[in-house]
Amino acid sequence: MSLNTLNRPTQTQSRQDPELDDDQFESELAAIGGVQTAIARVMIDAALTPKARQILLSRSAFVVVIQVPAAEWCEAVGLAVVGMNSSVRIRSATKRARGGEPELADGILSDSRGEIRGLAIITHDPARLLSTVQLGAADAVVTLPKPNGRLVSRMIKRVTGQKPRSLTDADVEELGFHELAAAIRLGASAAESTQRLRRAKAQPKARLADTRIPRFEELPLTASARSFGEAILDDIESLRRGEINASQLQNAVLTGPPGTGKTLLAGAVARSAGWPFVSTTIGRWFTSTDGYLGGVMRGANDFFEELLTHDQAIGFIDELDSLPDRAAMSEKDREWWGAVVNGVLTGIDRVKASGRPVILLGASNFGERLDAALVRPGRFDRLVPLLPPSTTEEIVGVFRYYLKSDLAEVDLVPLALLADGATPAAIEAWVKQARRSARRSNRPLALLDLTEAVAPKGNTPLSMLEACAVHEAGHAVIAHALGIPVRRVTIVPTAHARGTTTLDTATVPQTRGGIETLVMVGLAGRCADEQMGSGASAGAEQDLRNATSLLASAHAAWGLGSYLSHRVGTGDPLELMRQDPALEQQVEQDLQRLKGKVDKMVSARRDAIMYVAKALLEARVLNAADLEQSIEASGSSPALFGDDFLAGHAASKP
Known about the structure:
By secondary structure, the protein is α/β, with parallel strands linked by helices. The chain has 28 helices and twelve strands.
């Protein structure tokens, strides 16, 4: 058979005997189109009905949708279709475009060159990745089966010319396209191909298409999280098209507070990419082994070994901050942990040196605590902050995701204001709690159930609510006066506080004046308690702790006070104060001096603080615009402590 005959079937072949003879096909198609094309052709032949075959081999303007078992089949199936009918246009859809629209525009259904040509659209998920127009235009939908023992035996015969013996469905179950193509080789015997298939089957499997993990496109994400995931998927797509190589893939550590969805995001990206997801935790290296040094290092090594069994994969290490920073350890601890950290670094380097398309992702609640050798180019190339949703729209999106079709017509914006600052995990828990309440009352879910879950009224006495409102209003009004943006202030209790004032401190300079400005905001709640509330209370303990820690660090760590030497890490300045009476005395003097300034500010802004406190009692949560409106309504001048005061304060000396 000539090359011309192979790529352009004659009318006789197309209509009378469209399936090429096995003996002819196995050597010539494999040699010209490659093993991968030969494997794909077997799958196509198994799936085509007589009518679908007639359409696919015709020279008319048809549209055929071909559903493959996974995205990794698309390219080879496209080449095999062109081998059957060289006039066919091939388009593949493996992901959603940005914004959630189908990747392929409906314009592909007509040939821009005006020629009469067929179109084959190849995808692993037609319902999700194709538009209704494209699905409606299909003259035939061809669904390729999953590979089984009979089909793989036929693949082996077509490539090697030999029929394998006793190849069963169990031998090839769950093997992917690339595993099949790697095992079935030109010039090898059927027995050798069978042995390789069985070895591939025996390898430990990663989670690949775990339906419990949502796709990336389905998640309600913050703008930064969506940008991160899209960048990874774009890189993977560029790799598939040959525009980049595996060495250009970047690893990253997702950082942020617990409950922000770091593990979920990593798994969702892997599922949308169609890549295996190999996950582990530092804790698992201890619990799955004897916990001694050798066992822990074996646990780490097993993770990297499993990664290298895959043609491509996304690896995920949770609890990465459980690997301590060697620079902050004692000599005794470094002796034990240094071996573990070095083992992990060696594993990362092995994966990188393998040349395999593998992306490593880590998760840490404390990115600043990671060993410097971990977070550098070539290992974990960058830190990616993953924070709670920060806009009303993002919070509503998370509620909608977990509510599914419930409360579809209800305005959730007021609820989102109450939930400002919450993590996706907290929102999921609230939705579950609300559903439980509705079930117990034997009625449908209502907005009131959610509101009570997010901000339960409880039995808190009014006097305590009023005291909390005055305290938080003190923080918010003084922050506003000092020019620090206030994102939110609330008297909705959490596990850690009765109320919260959330600031945007990005604009505060890391100078002595900037540090003291933050301390003044921290002291403002206590000053308001003393002047307008029921007096100083133990509820300000965390405020005082933070203020003390900032000033102690300014003196003993940052060179912004009495000492130029770096005497203590930022994690333990309070311990140094206990051992250094002179430092303790200096910090106390600073606190008293700054509190005197704040007392004057609070006294001058009593009306504004009371207005904000009243608004808090009514709404329970205020955003930046609400706060501004309350301060303006109080008649308090925003310029009362303006540029002159701030300039003088920033220039103040200890």
